[in-house]
Amino acid sequence: KEHLEIVKHLIESVGCDIIVREDGTVSTLLHKACYNGSLSIVEYLISKPQCDIEAKDNKGNQPLHYAA
Known about the structure:
Ankyrin_rpt-contain_sf; 2 strands; Serine Threonine Protein Phosphatase 5, Tetratricopeptide repeat; repeat; globular; Ankyrin_rpt; two-stranded antiparallel sheet; alpha+beta; ANK repeat; about 45% helix
């Protein structure tokens, strides 16, 4: 289930960063949305200027790798 409204609220109202760091890994919300097949969240995230569509995670993968 996609949670677009929650993601929007966290980014726009709470000020959450699009880059997520947890357990020593670096990935972005875009990586996670692509991995989960959350198209509406992917579309929302890439509309944000701070979204780096070429960001690499700790494995060297860009979000497109997970979308494929």
